[in-house]
Structure formats: C-alpha cells, structure tokens
Amino acid sequence: MSAIALLVVGLAAFLTGYRFYSRYISERIYRLDPDYVTPAHQFEDGTDYVPTNKHVLFGHHFTSVAGAAPIVGPAIAVIWGWLPAFLWVVFGTIFAGAVHDFGALWLSTRHRGHSIGTVTQSVLGSRARVLFLFIIFFLLLMVNAVFAVVIANLFIANPGSIFPIWMAMPTAVVVGILVYRTRAGILWPSIVALLLLYLYIWLGQYIHPQLPDFFHFAPTATQMQAAGGDMAAAQAAAMTDGIRAGWVIAMMIYAGLASTLPVWLLLQPRDYINSHQLFVALAVIFAGIVVVHPVVVAPMINHHLPADSPSWFPLLFITIACGAISGFHGLVASGTTSKQLDKETDARYVGYGGMVGEGTLALTAILATTAGFAIYAGVDGWHEHYASFASASSGGVNAFVHGVASLCEGLGIPHEVAAIFAAVVVISFAVTTMDTGVRLQRYILEELGSQYRIKPLRNGIVATLVAVATIGLLALGVDRGAGGMRIWPLFGTTNQLTGALTLLVISAFLWRLKRNVLVTAVPMVFLFVMTTWAMVQQLGGYFRHQWLLFGVGAFIFVLELWLILEAVVAFRKMLGGGDPGTPTEKVVYDVLGDE
Question: What's the domain count of the chain?
C-alpha cells in the first residue's frame, strides 16, 4: 500500500469535513454569534481571561491538545493493522472529536468560561458536577503522569533533544514580554524564535547534557532476570531508572512553576511558536513521504496477532484517543481556551480546526510507524518491533521518531539531526500539555476545595503543590517510572469516558435549547459503549496482578455509572418540563434572546 495514497485520502477527508460539516454545526447547531461578548472580554484580568487573536489562540489550543497522545496511540494501534487505525482517525476526527472540541469550547463560552465540570451543575445538577470533577481530576492525573514518563524516556533515548527543549522556554518568555509589554506584533518574534529553535536542534548534536543518577536504585529481580544474571547490565538498567526518576521530578517542578505564570508570559508565545514548529514538521514529513514514496509494510488487518495482544475491538477506540476524540481536549477547550476566545465565531476555527490538526498529526504517526520506520529498521525489524504488544507499547514513540527521521533523510537531512527534530516535536507538545494539564488540575482542586470547604485547597499554590505531588507519585509509583506506560490503557478508557460525558453535557444543553442533538448524541452513545466494554475487560485483567490500576479504574467506573444515573434523572426532569440544573450567580447558562 502506498503511503502517499493514504496521505492524500486522509487530508482530503479532513478538508471536506472542515469545509462543510463544521459550517453546518456552527450555523445550525451551535449558532455562533459574532456580536456575543465572550468571557475573555467580560472578565478580562490579564492572567487567565485574555482576549487573544484567533491564530495565536489556535496555536495555544492546538499544541495544548496535541501532546504525545496522538503519536503514542496510533504507534501502538497499528499492531492491529493500518486500516482500522486509519479509519478511526479519519472518521473519529470529523464526526466525533472535532464536534466534541468545538462543542466544549462553545458551551464554556456560554457559561462564563467555566470548565466543563462546573458547567455540568447548570445542565445536570450539583451532584453530577462533583462526580464529573472527580473523574476529570483522575484523567488529568494520568495524562500528566504518562507524559512525564514519556518525556523522561525521550530525554534518555534522545539526549540531543534536551538542550533545544530547555532553551525554548526562556526564548518563549522573551517573545511574550516583547509582545505584551512592548506591543510588538507576535508573528515576526515567533518566527525568529522558531529559527532559534532550529539552531538549538542543530547544536543538540554536540550539546546533550544528562541528569546524573541521584537515586542509586538497586537492581530489581526483574532486571536481574532480564539481564540473565549479568550484574553490570542489571545495574545499568537500575541507573536508567534513577535518571528517569530525576527527569520526572524535574518536569514536575517545571510544570508546577509554568502553570502558575500568566498565560501571556509563557503559555501563549510558546504554544504559538510550537504551532509554527508543527506546521513545518508536517510539511517536512509530507515532503519526505512524496520524495521517498515509502510502502506501508504493516498488514491492512493483522490476522496473526501476538499472543499478548488484546482484541482490537473495542481496544482500538481506547488506544487511539487524542488522534480521534479525547476528553482531555474538552478540558483544555473549557479550561483555558474559552477564557481567551476573542469572538464566538472564532470557536469554529480554533475548536473544530484544532482537532483536524490533531487528526492530521495522528495520520502522520500512522504513516511514520508503518512506512518510515520500516526504512530505518527494515521490514524484518518492523515485524520484530511489533512482535509483541508490550514492545509496541513501550517503543511506539521511538518508532515514530526514527520513522520521521528516515523520511527526512530522503530530503538530505542527516538521520541524527532529523531524530532530534522529531523528538523535539513530540517533547514540545508533551511539555505544553503537561503545564496546561497541571493548571487545569489546580482549577479542579480549587473547585473541590470550595465545594467541601477545604480552605488550604482554595489557595492556588497549595493546590498546585498537591497536583504536582500526586502526579509524581503516580508516575514513579509504577516500577520506578519504568512501567509508567502501563498507565496508558487506563488513561485511554478514562479519557474516552470523559469525552463521552462531555458530549452528554453538550447534548443535554442542546436538548434544552430544542436543537438537533444527533450530532453529539450519536458519538456519545458509541463512546459510552466502547469505553464501558473496554473498562470491564481491563478491570478483569488488573484484578489479579495490578492492584493500583484496578483500584483507580474501579473507582472511576463507579463514578461513571453514578454520573450516568444522574443524567438519566436530569433528562426525565427535562422531559417532564422541569429544570434539572442549579444555575446560580456563579454558574449560569447564557443563551440568545430568541431562544
């Protein structure tokens, strides 16, 4: 199968969906109003509520949601064959993910910029709000823990990426100060910063600092067994654990500090620079595919799965989350993006368009891992990498990095530089997602502190410290971080569950406005079925051997069932003419006058 054919079909589908389906939704379903005063103008404070140019906001939203997940998920899922992954990415993006992201942004804008969890109170009731907040907290906990481990592993495997990643931070701060303190335009400073980033990438060949092993872990029994009794090899593996733990802690410190800064100082300029970086990366990868013309070596549908591989149905729809639909996107859309939306009509470009960009990234991940990686490893090497589900899971990101590097080689870029380039792309988005996620986790803890009158949690600094501490414990608590990717399946189910619940809240609001709910209700039902099915399967597997994941998963599953029951009660009240929500001065819904 030609990689070019898949690329052309996928991009054509995305463009068609944005051109026609998003217009129908914006005009007939969400009915965007260009004169509506958005929360960014209503509550402008210079820190969280900041009216922002739609292109800059697109950069923030796109890079916040485009973390490592749209790369990791497809890189794992192609073990089931390229066709199921391709179809889910394309159709999931157009009819589920983009509708979800667009809807969460619009709904939050109509509720004073409140998060989707808080909006639940005015739509489904106060108990539903608290339940949803707890589910969101656990989702954010797992997102940040997984990404911390992914970043740490990439720093270890690609030390040339360390220098450019850390140098990008002060560069973005300088851009933020130039733009917001001197009122300089953002385009040229961001382009200069992007060029500096590529300079840092080139220098990364020669400057690659690595953290020392602060912890001096002793080899585990598993490491001794894997090393065949070779003490030196086992000690080397234990040293890697120690270095990984150091990077996880370093990322926790960074994310805690970054999440408390004003959005204009680091978040917006860095995300805008990263959006340029992603567009350049996509252009380079697409050009590499055209020049190299690689063949997809993965089977269309894999009928000879490894013994440790679960069935693709329903696990495919959980493994590929952010590349098709993701509950985390709704948290970003309603948590930070809605507070920066200048005009309500910008929501189509930022929300639906941002998810189309995410789907495009997932499409490149499929092509890089099924075609580009085979150039690097050879056809036999590809099949060896995907010889087990465990290998595919642990090495998915590196397969993407070397797949992209191999495609870039066709353009005359040295493999080592191209590998640093690809690693920086992945890490940049993962870091962006992490500090946005920690900021959102702080919001959730503050809301729960207010709900249960826990005064310390109402303090932003205390809430941030609690968030960072819990993330670090989860990230390092699974085999000292070495088993951090074991959290991924539970992250996928919780993420998709959150997406289904967000679609439920949007559907309930549309029902109250007497609008067509099918565009949100159909993907909502599909996600609920797939997520519940996958969760039950996973809990059965965790029960005997992985008590941590079983406990967290069971708790989230109970919250899901409880919240669904609350939704059923709310819909019964609406059918009876009642109002299930509890709008107050703090949480209100705002609709057009003719409604």
Answer: 1
